[in-house]
Amino acid sequence: MSEIDAAVSPTKDFAPQNVQGNILRGYRHGKVRHLMLEVSNRDVARRFLAASADGTQKDVPRITRSADWSRDNPLETCFNIGITFAGLRALGLPAEQLATFPSEYAEGMARRAIKLGDFGQSAPENWPSPFDQPDRIHIVASIYSNDETAFDTVEVQVGRAFTILGTRNGRNLPDDKVFFGYTDSISQPRFKHVFDPDQVGVDEPKDPLGTVLLGYVTHFEGVEFAIPEPKNVFRDSAFNAFRVLQQNTDAFEAYLSKAATELEKNPRQYELLPKGAEANINGGTNRHEALREVVAAQMCGRWRNGTPYELSPNSDVLGDLSKTNYDYKFGSRCPAGSHMRRANPRGGPIVQRVANYSRRLVRRGMSYGPDPETGEHGLLGNFIGANYGAQFEAVMCDWINFGLQDPEITGTNDPLLGANEPETSVFYLTTSTEHRIRLSGFPRFVIARGGAYTMLPSLSAIRYLSGLKG
């Protein structure tokens, strides 16, 4: 019995063997390869899906289910798929059923670009191949492994059934960091009826399964997100925003130095960081370097080692406190405009109080690059939920790029992820008094380089699609 199976009794109709892996719990592999696929022969593609769901054909990778993987039974290689709306059409799903899918999914990521802040450098017309032809991307297949040879083996198997338009390789950086230097993957939703040993001791509200899976209750009493037709087939599916996000670390580090130089001349700098507190940052450093790290910590909402700024505004030493068990309060030293508070306000005060825990997203990702020729590097991210409009797009538009959750930040963008321009960017540092220190002139640090809206179909949905006729 898997760890997930062992905790499902309160929801009798929850079937982890029908849910694709990497949704309810993350894998532990250190590398990934994403394949962007086109259905060039409908019949061949359907036969591949049937064999992949069945898992008995040696030359076809088996879809990994939530019930397949546990700490005690790690799989050497995991394989999962996401299907775009164009992919459903290419596989032959009838028009009357296609019409029951959400409009955001039907339009696709490229056509929803403005909603996501993907303009300027991030605009779809600047995305490289194959993301410059979004209607040709029908499936994003993901291979997780620590064994490099597994990627090539599975890619060859997949290539017999689909046209491979492009690949993206990712890996975990040392100490679970991203290229900006922050420790990542600290806080994730934890779900009712799902035991995750990695989250033992985390004292955050448990999210209902309907937060991420179709067919279950949500945070909103009496509200379940719509399931496409036929409902019994697409239940247990999820929606995913697959994103290729370039991280401009040189610009980020340069701006931290610029901001620190300005702060050293600011008479309120000691309200931002008390004299001598630099001894408690990075194991002890000089004033300039300490101020750089304060700016980085306030922009993110965490120090780069993962310590929450909310709990420790003058030191990155956490002590016995938890990195996850905290909330935001009125007068918090963690800025309302920080990335962490924008993306997940927890139970803190926001205008849209009902939305505090309702826009939770499962985040799965690994870093990519640097490219040997261009030096480009960043994150291959998956942002998983049950409804694009109520979750991913609401977070990106309302919170990340408009700041509608708090009047103090309305009209400003997320300092790390937002669609910033030097001429208009603004961020306010908090101090130990009621005064705030205004920063401005920073560029966009994260640039979209492609992506796709996909559905992570249940195993019953994969079998249904494989059996379509015509």
SSE order and pairing:
Elements: E1 31-38, H1 42-54, E2 77-83, H2 85-91, H3 95-98, H4 103-107, H5 113-116, E3 139-145, H6 148-159, E4 163-171, H7 231-234, E5 238-247, H8 249-263, H9 269-272, H10 287-300, H11 339-343, E6 362-368, E7 378-385, H12 388-400, E8 426-430, E9 436-440, E10 446-456, H13 459-466
Helix pairs in contact: 1-13, 8-10
GO cellular component, one term: cytosol
Cofactor: heme b
InterPro entries: Dimeric_a/b-barrel, DyP_N, Dyp_peroxidase
Describe the structure.
Its cofactor is heme b. This is DyP dimeric alpha+beta barrel domain-containing protein. GO terms for molecular function: heme binding; metal ion binding; peroxidase activity. Keywords: Iron, Metal-binding, Oxidoreductase, Peroxidase. Pfam families: DyP_N (PF21105). This protein starts with 30 loop residues before the first strand and ends with a helix. By secondary structure, the chain is α+β, with helices and mostly antiparallel strands. It is built from 13 helices and ten strands. α1 (42-54) packs antiparallel against α13 (459-466). The model is unreliable at 1-10 (pLDDT under 50). The chain has helices at residues 42-54, 85-91, 95-98, 103-107, 113-116, 148-159, 231-234, 249-263, 269-272, 287-300, 339-343, 388-400, 459-466; strands at residues 31-38, 77-83, 139-145, 163-171, 238-247, 362-368, 378-385, 426-430, 436-440, 446-456. A four-stranded antiparallel sheet has the order 2-3-1-4. The protein is globular. β8 and β9 (436-440) form a beta hairpin. It has two domains: 5-241 and 455-466, no CATH class; 247-450, no CATH class. It is 23% helix and 16% strand.
